[in-house]
Amino acid sequence: MNLDHVISRRFAPTEQSYDWRDCALYALALGMASDPLDEYELPYVYEGMSQCAVPSQCVTLGWQPFWQNDPAAGIDWPRILHGEISFDLHQALPLQATVQVAHRLCAVEDKGAKRGAVLYFEHRVSDLTSGAALATVRDAQFLRGDGGCGNAGSVPLICAPLPVLTKPTWQIDYATAPQAALLYRLASRDLMPLHADPSLARQAGFDRPISHGLATMGLACRAILRHCLPGQSERLEHLAVRFVQPAFPGETIRIELYEQGDGLRFRARALERDVLVLDRGEARWQ
After folding, report:
1. Which residue range forms the structural domain that includes residue 243?
2. Number of helices and strands (H, E) in the chain?
3. From CA 178, how far away is CA 259, in angstroms rounded?
4. Each residue of 33-88: pLDDT tens digit?
5. Structural domain tally of the chain?
6. CA-CA distance, 46 to 53, in Å (whole number)?
7. Which of 77, 118, 138, 199 has the smallest set of CB atoms within 10 Å of its CB?
8. CATH number of residue 128's parent domain
9. How is 173-190 classified by DSSP, letter by letter?
């Protein structure tokens, strides 16, 4: 990676309009309402039942144009993975809005040659018409092929380590569809071909396209809404998680929720491989 180029790069704000249909498509991409008689999840996909947006949809709004494949950046872009993400909602996510998102590179952390590097970003989502703040999203992008590039900036803490965990307070298994990544990329507008193109997935070291880490995080948000905030999605204020290993479309994802005072911690594993895919999860609400 060309560190000087990356840290001097400025990112233009992005804009996006969305409506209730986009909210429903996002929820469907998470597998919501797979049971047509489940009245807990139907309001996320059906405008006839006081529809509401899934809070984690905020991480998909105003997606940055994919700049990492610019030759001037010198990034081994097929090997990029999401490392961590958090969001703080400043109000309930509306069903319809035009948003503007300001993007800022906060830090570059060099893990060392052959160990990769991490880019830390902050994205501020606001309503374009009113200027009201909707959400602040922070993420860490793991550049597996770019170790040895050098450091820049102050590395923020996105996910706090988990305490010692014993038996989950709740756990729920979600069977994901084989085409789940193809559906999620359309719902989220994250069109990176790693989630669709088998040849590119092999180039990146996987035997098939992988699921979006943000889709797996969305499954965790789905479980939290179901077990902790049924019918009260507007109360969710904060969610953070670390992506440990990629999941694959078609796998069964087990979300483990641990009640912790005024919020909870969580993690997730792919059952067929018994592999942890999410760790250091944290959620808080009003």
Report:
1. 3-285
2. 5, 11
3. 31
4. 999 888 899 999 999 889 999 999 999 999 888 899 999 999 998 888 889 999 99
5. 1
6. 11
7. 199
8. 3.10.129.10
9. EEE--TTHHHHHHHHH--
